[in-house]
């Protein structure tokens, strides 16, 4: 596109897949998916955050359906209804560009309710106090007003994440 003079038009791969890849590299040290089929079959919560699996990775759709058959909850966060919506128990329709606000609100609730592995965090994480201060303004009401997701659904999402012993977050 840039060679044709359209420097501000990007292909979907440049704005979606490469962003997810870069995020994975920053968070996990690898730009590749670290999820295996075995993990999908044994997860208790599969959180598909903007991951339109049915259309971008169609072979995985059947494994998501099998994970649900095995008792996994599937929650899909996306601003659009897609074929992946049919795989989910619940979809949260988020306003475009507000994912960070939802993440901050979920983090706030997880910290506030103590729904995290405190022993692990104490041993391996620095900056919990700073994070706690950073997420303080992101109340369920504030998150709802920005994202368009009802406050009760924000709380329910945090509780689902906090109570799940095995969660896969698929970006």
Structural write-up:
The radius of gyration is 17 Å and the shape is globular. The chain starts with 11 loop residues before the first helix and ends with a strand. A four-stranded parallel beta sheet has the order 3-2-1-4, sandwiched between helices. It contains nine helices and four strands; from the N terminus they run ααβααββαααααβ. It is of the alpha/beta class.
Separate helix tally: 9
Class by helix and strand content?
A: alpha/beta
Distance between the termini: 26 Å
Radius of gyration: 17 Å
**What is the element string, with H for helices and E for strands?**
HHEHHEEHHHHHE
Uncertain segments: none
SSE layout:
Layout: H1 12-28, H2 37-42, E1 45-49, H3 53-56, H4 58-69, E2 73-78, E3 90-93, H5 99-112, H6 118-124, H7 128-135, H8 140-147, H9 151-163, E4 167-170
Helix pairs in contact: 5-8, 5-9, 8-9
Considering the chains and any ligands shown, give keywords for the structure.
171 residues; 11% strand; four-stranded parallel beta sheet
